[in-house]
Amino acid sequence: MTYRCTGRRAYSVLRRAYGVLCFIIAVVLLLTFCDNRIIERATINYFPYEEGNWWRYLGDSDTLLVEVEPSDTLLQTEVTPVSFGGNIKYFVEDDRALSEYVNIVYNFSGDDYTIIENFITRIELPLVYDNVYQDSLIDSLNVFGQWVTAQYRMSGAISEWENTDITEVFDTLYSEAGYKIELVTIYNLTSQDTTITDTTYLEEYYVPNKGLVRFYDGETWYDLIEYEVR
Q1: CA distance 169 to 204
Q2: d(CA 221, CA 219)
Q3: CA torsion angle for 133, 56, 83, 91 (degrees, to 10)?
Q4: pLDDT for res 20
Q5: Hey, how many other C-beta atoms are within 10 angstroms of the C-beta on 46?
Q6: Which residues of the chain have pLDDT under 70?
Q7: Nearest to 123 by CA among 99, 151, 159, 89
Q8: Nearest CA among 151, 121, 155, 148 for reference residue 137
Q9: How many Å apart are CA 225 and CA 213, to the nearest integer?
């Protein structure tokens, strides 16, 4: 039996094939664009925590100086100490996260006993809009016959900080949009006769190559007024 393909039928087949090809090309271009945007954002420095860099922020009635101190070593890991007005936070950055050192101790009869000492994910990397993540540390220790349990949880949500919002603060329109990062930390310490729970809500705003330009520490809003980033 012989089949013949008429001109109209051949045109219909070619048209469908062309449509499928265009769809495939569009999908490939879209995926490539998204991958390139993620790679581009990953190479921009949103956390310029190099020794000597500093930022000064204005709060409700006073200023806060944030300084990057010389590197240190904790848990056999090189960390970057950052002083927030004398309150030191220790950060570690890699391809997956900006992590923070956590040390929770229990005081018994004047002596401190370490319950948790580890790193927790503070900001998941690379930065991606609408990303929601969480991390937790849980451990227990027997202190003179009683079990003490500590938990430290951190949840984060990343969203876009529009250029218009950034302009209101700096009178400058950045080519790259900033990031708003919402953090919730939950601290819990339980012993035989004591339970301590504390929940803190934080907001942090980052722009390229300047880092943290606005934040809420659970009590006060701070806005960047001057800085030096090398």
Answers
A1: 14
A2: 7
A3: 30
A4: 55
A5: 23
A6: 1-15, 17-43, 163-176
A7: 99
A8: 151
A9: 9
Asked if 47 and 68 touch (Cβ cutoff 8 Å), the reply is no
Rounded to whole angstroms, the Cα distance separating 223 from 228 reads: 15
**Residues 6+ away with beta carbon under 8 Å from 76:** none
Burial class (CB in 10 A: 0-12, 13-18, 19+), 222: buried
pLDDT of residue 61: 87
**What are the tokens at 212?**
């943290």
DSSP one-letter string for the chain? ------HHHHHHHHHHHHHHHHHHHHHHHHHHHHHHHHHHHHHS-S----TT-EEEEE-SSSEEEEEEPPPEEETTEEEEEEEETTEEEEEEE-SSEEEEEEEEEEEETTEEEEEEEEEEEEEESS--TT-EEEEEEEEEEEETTEEEEEEEEEEEEEEEE-HHHHHHHHS---SS-EEEEEEEEEEEEE-SS-EEEEEEEEEEEEETTTEEEEEE-SS-EEEEEEEE--
Residue recorded with tokens 């690379």: 126
Report whether 200 contacts 184 (CB < 8 A).
Answer: yes
Q: What is the pLDDT of residue 143?
A: 97
